[in-house]
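CO-FOLDING WORKSHEET

Operator: S.A.
Ligand of interest: flavin-adenine dinucleotide
Run index: 351
Mode: holo prediction, single chain
Checklist:
[x] sequence pasted
[x] SMILES validated
[ ] output reviewed
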Amino acid sequence: MPRISWERVIRTTVGLRPHRDSGFVLKAERLDDKTVIHDYGFGGAGMSLAWGCGAMAADMALEHNTRKAAVLGCGSPGLTAARQLQRRGFEVTIYAMSVPPDTTSNKSYAGFTPTTALVANERRTPAWDEQFRQAADLSYRQLQLLAGAPNWGVYWIDSYNATDDPIEPRPAAGAAAPGGREDDLLPQYMRPERTREVLGPGEHPFPTRYAVRTSSLAIEPSIYLDKLVGDFILFGGKIVVRKFDTPRDLMSLPEPIVVNCTGLGSKSLFNDEELVPIKGQLTFCIPQSELKYRAFGRLPTSAVAASISPRSDGIGVGNMMERGNWSLDPNLEVRQQNMDAAIQFFAAMRA
Ligand SMILES: Cc1cc2nc3c(=O)[nH]c(=O)nc-3n(C[C@H](O)[C@H](O)[C@H](O)COP(=O)(O)OP(=O)(O)OC[C@H]3O[C@@H](n4cnc5c(N)ncnc54)[C@H](O)[C@@H]3O)c2cc1C
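OUTPUT RECEIVED:
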């Protein structure tokens, strides 16, 4: 049984998803004598798409003669791009003003959710769709190779959507996600719904008639990002803590190729006006090692859906999506609603 109570709350974390209505940017441009390869703007999908976009960015770098590259940013996109460059024989230095555990990537819920808060359907182009499909496919395959491997924090997990109506889609935890979660972007083989099983009354412990079970890939950000940092260094990488204020600052770097994975930082650094934060927030309770599933559900009396996600660093409760909010302060009202919903819902479970 999930033990969700205020006494067991250990922290509330806030992160800002780097969203662009027209989707992530993956392209090379010339800046004086440097080639800058942009790889940022992943909204709520930066843990999911990073390996694939990193591979595509590294392939763009391979078109040049040099094998020395700088990566700006040390979150999931930056670290995976750096590893993809190393795998292709590059000598890589990461430059970032913050490193794990102090990145947005560390604040992630970190499911394999490649379409969440990613793109506005009306802004998609065929060329972007193609990049997305390639990135999602590469990432999905890479994460499967890491799932269950020692010290990666990548694994498969069952999710239960406890509901009285098994046809109804899963309630969103927090406000609806901008972008195309339910759209045609994701190929069938990547959709958790493919594994969907409906459990009837008596076949599950939740306080609803049905529970819909699906399986999906998940990541533990702190374990995963530490492992990426460790591997990057093991393969000869260097990390330099440094802030860049303007593209001019890049000219002082010795590397002729610069892969830009600065996320929201690109708004001021590269003047990308389209970038907007989508604030997210998770509250954690003390971990329970025996809890091996995610669960979502709503009691008829509750306006807010309850959700829990167990990890070794805590049980994540709730989530939120607030566009345009730059504040890193926890929203106490949202925390109260998420905790109240989870306490009521899981207290009503059958033992
Ligand atoms: C609550 C929450 C839940 C989420 N759930 C999921 C999920 O389930 N699945 C999923 O795939 N994604 C999820 N995400 C989204 C995911 O976390 C982000 O897409 C991803 O972390 C963004 O990475 P980033 O590289 O843009 O940011 P970061 O991880 O912060 O990395 C940016 C890096 O760039 C550096 N930088 C920025 N500007 C500069 C500068 N001017 N000079 C030097 N360095 C600079 C920073 O210091 C940092 O090192 C979630 C996010 C949140 C907040």
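REVIEW:
The pocket of flavin-adenine dinucleotide is lined by residues 15, 17-18, 40, 42-48, 72-78, 96-98, 103-105, 107-111, 113, 243-244, 261-263, 265, 269, 280, 282, 319 (CB under 6 Å).
Residues 173-181 have pLDDT under 50 and may be disordered.
[x] output reviewed
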